[in-house]
Predict the structure.
Amino acid sequence: MEFFAPYTFGEVLAFLLQGLSLTLIIALTSIVLSFAFGSVLGIIRFLGKGFWGKLAGAYIDVVRNIPVLLFIISFRLMLPTYIGSYKIPNKALVSAILAMTVFTSAMVAEIVRGGLNGVPHGQWEAARSQGFTLWQTLRHIILPQAVRHIFIPMMGQFVSCLKDTSLCQVLGVGELMMNATVIIGKYRYASQVILVYALVAGIYCLVNVLLLKVARRIQG
Amino acid sequence: MFQGWMWTEVFSSWKVFAKGFLGTISVSTVSLVLMFALSLFAALLRVGRNKGLRWITGVLMGFFQNTPLLVQVFFLYNVLPLIGIKLGVFSVGSISLSVYTASFGAAIFEAAINSVPKGQSEAAYSQGFGFFAVMTRIVLPQAMKVAIPPMTGQVVNLIKNSSVLAMVALGELMYMTDSWSAEHAIYGPTFLLSAVLYLALCLPLARLSRNLEKKTRR
């Protein structure tokens, strides 16, 4: 196609999709890590009235109210290149994932805490009166009910995590937004620039809408 | 990374950060007003009787919700000059920020309006009220009570998202932080100060949102 000269449409799309794969890698890794870390944090926050609960609460409140871009930029500059004598491979990517994880786990923790709050208190009392331990109560009684309140907002959070990965372009990580910026730099005409942006927006939108669709289907 | 001289250096340039802080406040305030008006307008279209408008508004909301703010900002920033529209970076920033946040705000307003019992609007229609009068006099005053706590949460998001505008060199806090720290190669204290300033804006609002939510639930 002459329209995208000096490249073909296929080449442009392939380059963008290559960026998308890295976007998905960053997003999925951060999401999995945040899910693990954030759930623990949310449960501690929900249960703990003591020191640990306060600490988890402070972490959640502080991190949630700072822009994720600040984490991304500061992690890039403040992460050491060496830990002892071990050189961190692919530092930009690692700092991107770490920054996203630190931020997203606070969001996940708040969602988990909200979900746990949504389970009526009587459920706790009933379980404990039957001799369930704290862990058993959580595992068999509370969490299965909380999951219903947690699932949809969690998917929403994952979508915003995926969107936030676009900010990782400041790190020079070749994810979708970075690749888009590179390609758009090659074009001068409004129609070409608009079309590439539309393509990028379309890719993001498609992935996110699909995610949400799947989530709604699973929820039933 | 956090030596004493760095702190003195940072605080001797306090004017830079004050300027950035004010920049964040002003772009957020302008976007907030625009966002509020736009959300309300879109929500009214969503509950209106025109099927086509309802559908289009829904599609647009979905589109803006599911694409990154950065794409929208870059689009306006790079495309508008190419088609001959010259807008300052502040206008570009506040337009994209408010449209992006409004796509979520509209969903909140829509849900709030739908949460008002149908009987309320039916009763008003039966008394000869038009759509506009029903909304402004009967439904919206009740819907506002439901919408305000989550909207406050959106304001927090709006302030946080204003940091994205640093990518188009709008002189708000994030941009000032990034450029000042790069210029002086002082990172730790700069980022910490910037984080504290963002917290000073967002934390009280987040608290307010949570308290309002507790109050309405009761």
